[in-house]
Design a protein that fits this description.
Number of strands: 15
Low-confidence stretches: none
Radius of gyration: 27 Å
Shape: elongated
Strand content: 15-25%
Order of helices and strands: EEEEEEHHEHHHEEHEEHEHEHEEHHHH
Strand order of the largest sheet: 8-9-7-10-11
Helix content: 25-40%
Length: 402
């Protein structure tokens, strides 16, 4: 097995054989431990059955899993909401202001957001967030009574951590039914990580519940909860906040089927939004697995490449698409990339007419006919389809004149 890639201007080649792994950088052999790698690998998915390695902690600095799989049985919406809050409150606004502003502008959402939650017991919560000693006692009691994996974070909980919880909620406001924290994502001097830390600790020990993110459209005066967002809007906010939070310069980013739950309009805009989210992370390389012709239609040839993975005779084959699909129609992409012939597909009809004209005129351009034949052979026709006989005739002509 062998493969190669460019990183930081260096051409890296790897070959695995009986003697082990052979690595060269710009033609010079190097030890495998000196292999140039991305600064970080980020895996993004919004489906619960993705195949990415799963980790529920940030202990591994090289790999970040940004999906919705987790050890609890929380709902998809609840998990997405909680992790979006975690992302937004832990992003360095000073370093990534441009990316955040572009994301919210593109979604039409104000950068002034609210985090809300309810207290299980109002008096007990006030005692906890105003007295670090009480917070310390509550956390220790919870850790003694529970053995779940998530409790591990409390084993070394200190009085400094308790003070951090109290400080984190010092800006919380109490309304008749819930607590509220205002967050201004345009404020580059703000650090909201303590707010998230406090909310996370209190949620885990059961002191608060119903943690939610409230957002507001630019053209509206009414805010609404994350749970009331469209599935596409929620997915985009989660995906790109994950990206902005976890990406580094020169990262390798995998995105699995981003089109799921997205309206076609968002699918068409996805690549543009991705570029805006990565504006403060130079040198990143993104690999997207997709079945969406809308996403493919927004790929610019200068900054992207397109590869089709196909299974033939139980072997995985990779076909490189050498032409640009930018601004192509759905018919063209379905036919030329996905090998799908829809009814009235103009691209297929043009190719078929060209092949028949070449044959009728006894063409010498056999290479063009070979290419057309190869495209037709990737299509699936029913035996009763009259076009199958036409395609078979073209195949016979090409084979006879090869």
């Amino acid at each position: 097995m062998a493969f190669s890639y460019y990183i930081n201007g260096d051409f890296v080649q790897l070959r695995s054989g009986p003697a082990g792994l052979d690595v060269t950088v710009d033609g010079e052999k190097v030890a495998p431990e000196d292999l140039p790698l991305p600064t970080r690998v980020v895996a993004i998915s919004s489906t619960i059955n993705d195949k990415f390695p799963f980790a529920d902690t940030d202990e591994d600095d090289f790999y970040r899993y940004c999906g919705v799989r987790e050890t609890s049985n929380a709902t998809w919406t609840a998990t997405l909401s909680r992790r979006t809050i975690e992302n937004l409150l832990n992003i360095s606004l000073r370093d990534h202001q441009d990316s955040i502003v572009e994301l919210f502008r593109y979604l039409g959402i104000s950068t002034n957001i609210e985090i809300t939650f309810r207290a299980k017991n109002g008096k007990e919560l006030e005692e906890l967030i105003n007295h670090p000693d009480s917070m310390m006692s509550a956390v220790n009691a919870y850790a003694r009574e529970n053995t779940r994996m998530q409790v591990q974070m409390f084993r070394s909980f200190s009085i400094e951590d308790a003070q951090r919880v109290c400080d984190g909620l010092s800006m919380a406001k109490f309304t008749p039914r819930k607590y509220l924290v205002d967050v201004d994502l345009r404020n580059i001097n703000a650090d909201y990580s303590d707010v998230y830390y406090a909310i996370n600790v209190l949620r885990r020990i059961g002191a608060i519940t119903d943690v939610d993110l409230n957002v507001q459209k630019y053209d509206s005066t009414e805010s609404y909860g994350f749970a009331h967002s469209s599935s596409g809007e929620a997915q985009l906010l989660y995906t790109f906040s994950s990206l902005i939070r976890h990406a580094k310069d020169n990262s390798l980013i995998f995105i699995d089927e981003p089109e799921i739950s997205l309206h076609p309009t968002w699918q068409i805009r996805y690549v543009g939004l991705l570029k805006r989210a990565l504006v403060s992370f130079p040198g990143c390389h993104v690999i997207i697995a997709t079945h969406s012709h809308f996403i493919i239609s927004d790929l610019e040839q200068d900054t992207s490449s397109l590869h089709v993975f196909e299974k033939k005779d139980d072997q995985l084959c990779i076909r490189n698409v050498e032409y640009s699909t930018y601004a192509w129609s759905a018919d063209h992409i379905l036919y030329d990339v996905f090998d799908v012939r829809s009814i009235g597909n103009l691209a297929f009809e043009n190719d078929l007419a060209e092949a028949l004209n070449l044959i009728a005129n006894s063409t010498d351009d056999h290479l063009r006919l070979e290419n057309l034949k190869a495209k037709f052979e990737r299509l699936i026709f029913n035996e009763s389809d009259p076009l199958k006989k036409v395609i078979d005739s073209i195949t016979e002509f090409v084979d006879a004149n090869h």
